[in-house]
Each structure stands twice: as C-alpha cells, then as structure tokens.
Amino acid sequence: MKIDLVIKLDIPEATIKNRLKYRAMKEGRADDNDETINNRLQFYYNHTLPILDYYKKTNKNIVDIYGDRDLNEVFNDICQQIDKLL
Q1: Are 55 and 6 a contacting pair, CB within 8 Å?
Q2: Cα separations (Å) of 40 from 2, 6, 31, 47, 76?
Q3: Which residues, 6 or more positions from 78, have their beta carbon under 8 angstroms from its beta carbon?
Q4: Helix crossing, 34-43 with 13-27: angle to 10°?
Q5: pLDDT number for residue 2
Q6: Residues facing 65 on adjacent strands
Q7: DSSP class per residue in 3-32
Q8: CATH fold of 6-85, please?
Q9: Which H/E stretch holds residue 66?
Q10: Where do the domains of the chain lie?
Q11: What does the pLDDT average to over 49-74?
C-alpha cells in the first residue's frame, strides 16, 4: 500500500483527556475513564509515534496540524493538505 500523506494532529495531552472525559459524560461511554484514556495514550506513545518517526526518516509526507483549535479551522487545514495531493 502506498501512503501519500500522513496527518498528525498535535493536541496537548490535557486537552485530549478533557475531550474524552466530556465525551464520556455526554454520551455515557463507560470506556472513556481515566485508566482507559491513560492506556490509549501510552499505546499511542509506544506504538504510533515510533511509526511516525520511521516515516519521517523515509521522507514520507507527514504534516503536523495543531488540533487544539476550532473544529472548522482544523477541518479546513486537513482539507488543504489533501487538496495539495489531488
């Protein structure tokens, strides 16, 4: 499989935790508790970040987008990056 673009959303860990806790409260998701959130973040740090480092070393097109902003701003930035490939 050829990968043309990798988009990495940069979001502070505190914001991620707050969003997931809000989702748990709003949607009644029992799996969005502190332990599960911390496990997901550890998985990301241990398994996903090393893959991103590999792609950076192999000169893949990796774009960092700051995700702690208005949803529409983030969406527009993502669309702009995809449009560059089309």
Answers
A1: yes
A2: 27, 20, 11, 10, 27
A3: 7, 65
A4: 140
A5: 83
A6: 9
A7: ---EEEEE--HHHHHHHHHHHHHHH--TT-
A8: Rossmann fold (3.40.50)
A9: strand 62-66
A10: 6-85
A11: 91
**Cα(23)–Cα(9) distance, rounded to whole angstroms?**
18
Which secondary-structure segment (H or E) carries 43?
helix 34-43
> Is the confidence at residue 41, as pLDDT, over 80?
yes
Is the pLDDT at 47 greater than 90? The verdict is: yes
Q: For the residues 26-35, what does the mean pLDDT come to?
A: 85
- Closest by Cα among 16, 73, 15 to 44: 16
Please state the φ and ψ torsions of residue 62, each to the nearest 5 degrees: -110, 125
Hey, what are 60's tokens? Answer: 């893949």
46: amino acid identity, one letter:
N
Burial-class residue 26 by CB neighbours within 10 Å (0-12, 13-18, 19+): exposed
